[in-house]
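Students often ask why we bother encoding 3D structure as a string. The short answer is that it lets us treat folding as translation between two languages. Here is a chain of 484 residues written in the first language.
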Amino acid sequence: MSYLKKIIANCLFIIGLILLASCNPKKEKVVQSINQELKAKPNILFIAVDDLKPELNFYGATHIQSPNLDKLASESLVFERSYCNVPVCGASRASILTGLRPTRHRFLNAFTKKDEDAPDVNSLPMTFLKNGYTTISNGKIYHHGDDDKNAWNEIWHPETKGNYYALKENSDLRTDDDRGPAFEVAEVADSVYSDGKIANKGIRDLRKLKKTGEPFFLALGFMKPHLPFNAPTKYWEMYDEKKITLPENYIQPETTPSRAFHKFGELRNYYGIPQGNEPIDDELANKLIHGYYASVSYVDAQIGKVLTELDRLGLAENTIVVLWGDHGWNLGNHKLWCKHVTFESSLRTPLVVKIPNVTKGTKNNNIVEYIDVYPTLCELSGIEKPTHLEGLSLLPLFEGKSIDKNYAVSKFKDAVTLIKGSMFYTEWINDKGEVSDRMLFDHTNDRLELNNLAEKPEYRESVYELSNDLRTKWGEDFLKRPLK
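And here it is in the second language, the structure alphabet:
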């Protein structure tokens, strides 16, 4: 009898091994097929663009000229529904680079430091550094230049001496309380402004890395189209300001909670911008939009120079290129400017990933969030994922497969948003998770977010379900205060 039990036990053990090996065959197939196109350690070119919103040709817009980004997108997987986890630069960058969600007490504002909010966590560059990569940070990757400094072999910033203007008359307008004009048109070379310097440094790095032959994680943090909208004249001349129009949702509906709006204080810091609650007149609004467009075209040209050199050196054959904007931006949407809100215009972001010989310009409509980038790059590079990561690898999406997640959670200050299906649901909460205001938009028939459904009786059940779902998805540490 004991001999029979032993046979049965062995059979059950073998069956278990077979089931375990076959539990996720699709994922293993994806990993193998993609890794066949790459060397053991593919390079990573990690391009961050400050304040870049997905108002680009490959996202369906036709008014901004960005031929180099368009070409990159035609060779990449384009994520059509990509969302940042917090719409402010410092916090967003700390979140994507650690793979951690923002909480009520972590990753809060523009001045967030990874070293303060997540000091014991291995960041994305640190993980690659520990796996034999040369890691270089150029320009604005973290908000603070010395943040997470041990994760990089080199950190470099362009020399500006705190002055981002090419023209003396604009530099002279800077004071301790004022940042100078909100835009500048100057007959200067591309390299006069910071992004031209960053592109040139990236090109020098690629040439140096080509010689060493070592795998690299090269991060380029471009400054534009962040304010001030300073760009050489030729980029301004690409647009006819008379043909620029205000956005369709240039309105603040009464059904939307008033706390959803703000005074766009970031913009009001600049010389010549109305102060307090004074509105931006249409002429100035068009000039700002013009400046944003010119700045995008300018940074597009700088990125193009780097990508051209990557090809010329033969490095593109084994380099994964990731391009992302740290958050969206309001160009008059809801009569707002800058970011700092939880409307889609602040949360939706450009995200394109090029894998040589794999991606070919396909667009993916799965909802993804920035905390998914870290685990994805680990899997694409054959690196073991750290256990702290809260996102999900997007690797199956690169072969047209599905993943077990199709939502995003974003927050700014007291507002927390769940993006799920066509629903865009926001709650304003306190430290106990108690709700004071709600906002719900159905993008099926209200993509401009003008009709708040949250207080309508017929949506009461949907609000209840979305509220519960939000609490299961915002992370188990969301309401916890950090230990002192």
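Translate back mentally: The longest helix spans residues 282-312. Keep this in mind for the problem set.
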